[in-house]
Amino acid sequence: MVVISAKDISKAYGTDIITEDVCFGVEKGDRIGIVGANGCGKSTLMGIIAGENEPTSGELYIRRDMSLAYLKQNNNFLGNGTVIEEASKSFSHMYAMEERIKELEILISDHESESFEKDLAEYTELMEEFEQKGGYTYKSELAATLKAMGFSEEDLDKTTDKLSGGERTRLALSCILLKKPDILMLDEPTNHLDLGMLDWLETYLTGYKGTLIVVSHDRYFLDRTANRIFDMNEGTLDAYSGNYSDFLIKKAERMEILMREYEKQQAEIAKQEEIIRRFKQHGTEHLTKRARSREKRLAMMELIDKPKIRQSKMKLSFEADFKSGGEVLTAEGLSKSYGERQLFKNADMLIRKGERICIIGDNGIGKTTLLKILLGIEKPDEGYLKVGYNVDFGYYDQGQLLLDENETVLGEMKNAYHLYTDTEMRSLLGRFLFIGDDVFKQVKDLSGGEKAKLSLLKLMLSGANTLVLDEPTNHLDIESREIVEEALMEFEGTLIIVSHDRYLLGKLPDRILELTQSGLNEYRGKFDYYLEKSGRSLRYSNASESQDKRSEGETERTLKLVRESEMSRQEKKKKEADERRRGRQQESLEERIHELENLLAELQDEISKPEYASDHVLMADKAEEMASYEAEIAELYDEWMSLQE
């Protein structure tokens, strides 16, 4: 059953086209992941579907009986309600039902009442509805969801104006999940979630019975939750079945096919243009008509657009100006508290030159604080810290707080690296896709992705031999994440990275350090090894089993297509054999035409010689021979063209 359909949806702001002629359909139960580069129109399309933006043109259909909820990247709560008050609004209908049930209980306690039968019937019906909608479990579900999203008992009475940006996003996500809409729309829901929260959310979504549409740059999340991918590129949309890994394979295959078709058509156009030229060259009425006919058909040909391949990519590389000593950092018994709140204690580590260390842990455990202690920005309450010989730190902070909000992009870079000329700096900024007047934008007006790229450029120019990065892939699109990962893989210095990006964790680290309240737990391997040794792998595999069950319908559809493909294979073989035969015939005809045209050209050269001008008998013979060649060429072209039909 189609729940959403879009036809030729376009959105423009003045001359700036965001989406153009976008078409798609969404079936009930679909789990759609929308991917694409930053600025390609993903959030704009989500806003149009959610009814928050009007398309410039096109038609959008959403089933009227479907409830829809939309999590934006930046959510603002009106007023100063507490966490528990805002979350409870998701169950306002349940509270109303409870109040009515209490009223009815009082009414039916009077058996002599004239409305007793009517009230009893309403009470019975309402109690059944209350039970069906989870009336006996919704309060525990509310508490469990808030806990899963990182809210402690103490947090429940916090007002929303006291929450951080990440906490507000997690609260908004909690409220939307609790509503259980028929269509759930999430824009970058994983940005502020730690590994435990991601695990919980993905498990929740595998059991979600509605329709899911999610914008995400989290490749691991898309693999576990999506069964269709919408790929947006320069305002257009292409749909693929399967999860993100399936999409990568299918897109590569599709682009290869499209490029072959485009190149084949271009070759055919060039061939037809050459034939038209040759037809006209002969000058006969028959071939001239043929030339005009071919020109008309060529003009009416529906041209295949060259496949859009994104050419502009961030160019990132890290190189150290000099090497550090063998031992980069030694820490023993590091502890940190804020007032009565203990973040962590007894944190020990030894980091050697060239190691790639990833630090993980729950939100609020103090990962960023630990990095700042290692850098000397903050002091530990207790413990010993030694920085090794020749260690030069380069720091990437996840909030880009080291950028001057009131400075321009070019000014920010010139302030940090004043020895570069404007031309040199603009060239470097161009590598990070700050083109033209982009360099004069103020930092405060940049998107999260643009700020991240500016910070990465500053880090690249630092020449540091020990890079300390706090969530380096947040706010970046998938392509930029892959570029960052590749640059970090090629870096010969030392890496200390805080990250929840499971693709990065599965690719980069030599060791994973998990920060807890009681210290650091070490895992000498990548993310799969961490899952196995930490006991999380069972929960991930259980979620994967749910994903597999959900994919059974997809498998059945795939098998049907395979069977249909088997039935048409013989027809395809026959068609290919016919095409090969026609191709051989065409080649044979073209060789004969070419041979005759050469003979014709030789005759034309011969009769143009002055010594033959007065030999009328010879000239007549040659003219007759030329006419014979012309007639045969025209006949061969007719036969050649019949093979083209």
Describe what is shown at a glance.
The protein is an alpha/beta fold.
Describe the overall structure:
The chain is α/β, with parallel strands linked by helices and 645 residues long. It folds into 3 domains: 204 residues, P-loop containing nucleotide triphosphate hydrolases (Rossmann fold); 220 residues, 3-Layer(aba) Sandwich (Rossmann fold), CATH 3.40.50.300; 92 residues. 49% of the residues lie in helices and 19% in strands. It has 20 helices and 18 strands. The chain has a 6-stranded mixed beta sheet with strand order 5-6-7-3-8-9, sandwiched between helices. α5 runs antiparallel to α6 and α9 packs antiparallel against α10. It is extended, with a radius of gyration of 34 Å. About 2% of the residues have low confidence.
Secondary structure layout plus pairing:
Blueprint: E1 2-13, E2 16-27, E3 31-36, H1 42-49, E4 57-62, E5 68-71, H2 83-88, H3 92-108, H4 116-132, H5 138-148, H6 165-179, E6 183-187, H7 195-206, E7 211-215, H8 219-225, E8 228-233, E9 236-241, H9 244-282, H10 285-300, E10 327-338, E11 341-352, E12 356-360, H11 367-375, E13 382-387, E14 393-396, H12 409-416, H13 422-431, H14 448-462, E15 466-470, H15 478-490, E16 494-498, H16 502-505, E17 511-516, E18 519-523, H17 527-534, H18 537-550, H19 552-607, H20 616-644
Parallel strand pairs: 3-7, 3-8, 5-6, 6-7, 12-16, 12-17, 14-15, 15-16
Antiparallel strand pairs: 1-2, 1-4, 8-9, 10-11, 10-13, 17-18
Helix pairs in contact: 3-4, 5-6, 7-18, 9-10, 19-20
